[in-house]
Every structure is written in C-alpha cells, then in structure tokens.
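Hi D.,

Good news: the full-assembly prediction came through. Inputs first.
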Amino acid sequence: MENGVLVKIISKLLRVGASEKLEKILRTSSPSEIQLIFSKLDASQKSAFFNLLFHQKVVSQTIRDLSQEVLEEIFHNISLEVALDLIQKLQPDDAADLMGKLPQEQSQWFLDKLDPVKKTQILKLLTYGKNTAGGIMNPNFFTLSQDSTINKAIELLRTKTQLEMVFYLYVVDEGRHLMGIVSLRQLLMSQGTVLLKDIMDSNVISITVNQPQTEVAQLIKRFNFLAIPVVDENKKLLGVVTIDDVINVIQEEATQDLYRMSGVEKDERVFTPIRSSIKNRAPWLIINLATAVLAAQVVGFFEGTIQKVVMLAAFLPVVAGMGGNAATQTLTIIIRGIALGELTFKEMKKALIKEIWVGVANGVINGIIVAVIAYYWKGMPMLGFVLMLAMIGNLFVAGAAGVLVPLGMKALKIDPAIASTVIVTTFTDCFGFFFFLGLSTLLIKYLM
Amino acid sequence: MENGVLVKIISKLLRVGASEKLEKILRTSSPSEIQLIFSKLDASQKSAFFNLLFHQKVVSQTIRDLSQEVLEEIFHNISLEVALDLIQKLQPDDAADLMGKLPQEQSQWFLDKLDPVKKTQILKLLTYGKNTAGGIMNPNFFTLSQDSTINKAIELLRTKTQLEMVFYLYVVDEGRHLMGIVSLRQLLMSQGTVLLKDIMDSNVISITVNQPQTEVAQLIKRFNFLAIPVVDENKKLLGVVTIDDVINVIQEEATQDLYRMSGVEKDERVFTPIRSSIKNRAPWLIINLATAVLAAQVVGFFEGTIQKVVMLAAFLPVVAGMGGNAATQTLTIIIRGIALGELTFKEMKKALIKEIWVGVANGVINGIIVAVIAYYWKGMPMLGFVLMLAMIGNLFVAGAAGVLVPLGMKALKIDPAIASTVIVTTFTDCFGFFFFLGLSTLLIKYLM
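Then the structure:
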C-alpha cells in the first residue's frame, strides 16, 4: 500500500475509533512503516495511535524492533500519564526492555510512578546482564506445589489468564526450588485426582540466570523446547525464557556476525539518523585507513621497481583484491563455525590445513588466468609468471591468517567477528604487495 | 571433553548397551562432534550408533544440521535395512528433508521400499519448493469436526501420542477446509460437553502452500504463534508449520546473507571436503578477478602520470580499500534492511540521500586524515589535497551504488546479497582510481 494513502486511512480510522480494523493494519505493518505513519500524524492522533500500539498483541515484538530514536520520539509526543498507564500493562520483561531503551531520567520517572511490585520486578531484571538468561526471562510464571492434584492445577490455571504463553507448569517446594515440570498436554490426559508429583518430569533441564542468551537459544533449539526455566545457583526458580524470546536472540546473533564483519554497529538500521550513522561507521573506516597506509608503505618500499616497470602499478589492485576476497571467504566460514560451536581449538590444525590447500588451489587457478591475461594484455610472459606466484602466495596467507586470526581472537576472549577482517586483510595486502613487488624486483631484468 | 576420550567412552557405552547415558551425551554434542565420533567407530559400532542417533528426540535437528557429505558417509556405512527401518519412523517432513539430501538413486531405493502412505506423503512434500511453506510443513496434524465435543476431542488426542508438538486442534469441514482452531489451553478450560464450534477461533491466520518460507517465519515471529496452518487456494488444510521449523529458517536466512555477500555457498561448513570448498569458492574469485582486471585497466590508462609521479602507486590500495570498506558498510545495512522487510522501493530516495551524506561526511573525515599523512610522509600538500578529493568522490560513489545496486537487483528478482558486493566494489575501484589519477593528471605540475 502506498504510504501516503496508508497514513490517510489510519487518520480516518483513528477519528472514527475503528480500533479493530486499525489493529489489523498495524499487525501487518513493519516497524519502519509504523515509524513513518507515526511521524505523519498530529499530536492528538499520535497519542491515540500509541495507545493502540500498546494494546495490541504484537506490542512486545514492536518494542523490540523499534529503534531507540523512534521510541524516544514516541515518548516525546504523548502525555506521560498515557505512557505510564501502558507501561503498567506490559509484561515485566518487555517493560524492562523498554526502560533500557529510554533515556535514564525518563525511565527513572516511570519507575518511580509504577506500582511497587512491578517496580521491584523491573529493577531486578535490569540488574542482570542484557545478554544473559536473566536479561531475557519473564519473572511471571505459573508454579504449583507437588502435592496439588490435577483438578487443583486446572482450577488455578483458569484464574491466570493474563500470563503470556503458558506451556508448562513448574512444580516447586516451599523454598521455590524447582522440583519438576508438567506439560499442558499431560494435564489434559491425566485423571483429575492424580497428584502432580506422580506425573511430573523431575529430570528438568534448566539454565542459570547468568548464562549467556546464546546458550539459552542453543538449548531451546537443540531440544525443541517451548520454554526453559531459569534458576539461581541453588536451583531456586527465578523466571522463564520462552521460545519467542529466543527467536529474537537467534536472529540478532546471526545479524551481529554480519554487521561486525562489515564494521557496522548492531543497532544501525536503514533509517538510523545520518549523524549516528556517520559516527558509528567512521571508526571502522579510520582503522582501515591506518592499515591501508601500512600496505602503502610496502608499495612505497618498491618505488624504484615501479619506476622501472610502471605497468606493475596497474596490477596492485588485482593482488590486493584477490587476497581480500579469498580471506573474507575463509573468515566467513571460520567465524560462523566458531559462533555455531562447530569449530574448537582442538580442530584448528585440521581447519588450517584445509584452508591452506583451498587457498593454494584457488591461487593456482586464478594465477593461471591472470598470467594469461597479463600475457595477452601486456605481451610479457614473465609478468604473468610473477603474478601467478604472487597470487598463490597471497591466497596461502589468506587461508592461514583466515583460520589463525579468528581463533587467536577467540583465545583472547575477543569476538572474532569484530576484529578479524581488518587484521587478516592487512596481512593479505602487505604480503601480497611484498610477494608481487619483491619477485618483480628479483626478476626485474626479464620485465623490462 | 577431549574428542579421543569421548570416542572411547562412546565405544564402551555402545558395547555394554547403555543407551540412556549415550543419548544424554549425544544430545549435547554438536554436529561436528557427532561426525567426528562416527568416523572413528568400527562398522558394527557405526550401525548401533546410527540407530541411536535416529531414535533420540533430537534426530530431526541433527539431520538438518549434518552436511550432505556426512549423511552420505553415514548411509554408506550402515545396512540399508537398518536405515529403511529408521526412515520409516521419521516424521514425513524430516524424511523428505533427508531424501532431498541423499543421492537420487539412493533416495529412490528407500522411497520404493517405504509403506505406500508414507511414500505418497513424502513425494507430495518433495513437489513443493524447498524454500516454501509446503517445503517445511508437516502433513500430519490433528483435525476434528466442528460438531465434536470437548470430551471427544480429549479422547482422540490421547490416541495421537506420536504426533510432534500439538499446540492447536484444527477444526475442518467434510472437505477438510479449515474452519477454526482451538488451543490446548481452551480445551483445558472448557466444560466437556461444549461443542468445538462454540469455542473455536474462526478468524484463523493461515498461509498458502507456495508462499516463501521467509514469509512464514515473519508471520510466526510477528504474532508470537507456535504453529501456523498451511492451506491451498481453496482453504483446504494441507499441513502445519511449527515454530521449531521457523527457528531454522530464521537462522538459515541470516547466515545466507552473510555467506552470499562473501561469495560462499550456503551449505559450506568448516569441514566441508577440500575439493568441494575449492569448487564452491573458485567462481566468486574468478568473477572478482575479472572485475579487478577492469579496475587495472583504469590504472593502466594513467600509466603516463604514474611514470612521472611514481609515489601515486603507493596510494592506489588506500583509495580502493576505503571505497570497498565504505561500500560494504552501506551494503550490509541495505541488504539486511531488504531481507527484514524494512526497506521498500518507495523509501529508496530517502535511503539514497542518507547514504550519500554518510559517505561524503566520512569521505571528508578520512580525506583530511590521509591528506595529513601524505603531507608528513611525502611532504607534498597537493598530493594530500588530491587524495582528499578522491576519497570524498569515492565514498560518494560507495553510498550511492550501495543503495541503488541492491534495490536494482531486487527489482530484477535477483537476491541482492548474491551479486551486489562484486558490482558495487567494481564501481568504487574504477571510480576511485579515476578520481585519484584523473585529478593527479590535471594537477600534475604541482605534484612533480
């Protein structure tokens, strides 16, 4: 739908109060469309629109997807009382998410006005690391004592309609220590007088509150769980992570590797304000500039050779480009392998041998092609030979550095996706130019 | 755990038949560990190990994650009867997945030996596109007539213990057209004599069988669904996609963008055999070689200028590298934006203006830095000035091409992640060299 038309329709629907139709439209709108619509509405409409946004089911998803800037703009445009009322209605984990995205003073203002139970829950959640099990868990869940009957459990469940996504009932002792779980399906299939302790699965897989969110995601994925209980060191139940939270984690982590390898901030989106984008991307470019100047020094070292055979200059970008591309291929495989837990230090040697072979083989293939091109273009067989050797050497370096650098980063507890690209391409640039211009210098009399 | 020790423990457990302990170990092993363990076992152990692998709950996950090569090796090492028996036990969607990964003759052999119902189901599934709703749905699901009572539904449900992940009951008419859904929770909370049609939600969101799997994933994610029904054009129910299938889709799609941008095949893993890796990666390198030669021609065009001021050669890699890095940043944001549905053609102009501004601003920042470096290194203010202008021009091209090329690809129905990188870096290389060497030629008398 054309965006202008969409805004008009929405203004009209807001005016006549047709909230059901509006909800339907909003559910199928992307965050960027929501952002656009919001920016086109007038003040009173903004408030009504916001209200609607927070009432519908997709709200938690929308909050997660909207950027910090848009959320701040939204909160700037509605009355604080409306906002407060709506925050009160959010699940604690979603509310904590939102608080984390708002400016410090603003979130403090809201926290002070919230009811004390909710405030305590949110503050507790905010103490856990953002990327840990505690940071994504929901502290509201459904617990029962092990001596309850099925009938009692069903009766209690009926009163808990506001809980999101109940899949399992958690059976705890008096100290809220996790004793077992009962699935809805088991509840449905058992006699009403049976005790929970007789049907519960007491071999529960749980996760401790400080474990990284990626481990939560891996567990849920591997075991096809719908939810996983989060406990402290003494097995006391603290919260539950549900599968919908994990979908976001999986998507974020995969996007993060891509972003980090390209030198882009995790939070940057297509319509992040220009100033933030410039600030986000400049450091990466400046680091790359520094390494490019390093490579330029290598070339500068051979200025005498280039002076004699100036056509060598034309092939410098070929040498650098091929090394960089081969290195990126190896890095992509190795960094994803590390992220997905498929590559460990023990297998380093095997991976190293493989990547070196792949590099050398592709060096030979591309070396022959470029040698033929050089021969026909410049009529010089020796230039072709030098280029071929330089290509093989450079792709050897690309394969070796592409394995060793990310694994070295990992050993130093640095995310390999962050720094490996720039380090490895510095290696391929410098060694590539050194091989190419060094060989040319040695064989200069055949090149003139 | 050290892999050698792990293999010994597993051999021993296989010998004594301690399958529970073994299952526990296998569940927490990664596909690459499973592959390694498998390769170290002798023939009889391989068969027992395989049997175990297919009996445990994580089997569908394992099949999805194991590479084609490992699966072929596994199937090469066990008796066909054992394999057949186990395939028979798989859910149809997992079996179809597996058939798709085996060599044609082998999967045909298995299909002919399977029971006819299963065979028909699998063949039907194989006719749907691999990346469509049909390709990932499970054709086994739980349907009921709208005139059933709750008690009847619960009774039927008890008999269907082999169904994976029942979250909703699908209510259909005589022609199997989808009429509504009832959740397990609703079932639990209603009186036994109530009719399904009185509690069912008839406003069901479904997906047609040929829609792409990414749309299925977006719907499930947006609405926090656990499962979504798949229908044909006449709303006849054909299958169900569950949330665990979608987790794989989301992970695959994000990885795919990263892989395609780096010129790596989607299926390549750390230990893909060397021959396959060479074959997979060579075409990308050859294409890049062709475009690098194109850029080399631009440099060759200015050989006269380089002959006069040979130090210009040293700065060629700086110009090319900065253009390539800035272009990759823009491409990453734009390609992910397109993939996540955040960027449409209508917003192209806005994105274009933004990226050009970001490019020019970072061009000015890095241009000034490199000008200062050139001044101190070579003592030539004019060289610095030329480099700065070239950098600004090149980062302008990076921003503009970084938006226009992927959106153009999308308009041509080509995945922007596949071809954009090579096209855009060709632009930045050629224009960068042209700006830098062209300006140098114009201002040559100030550079000598």
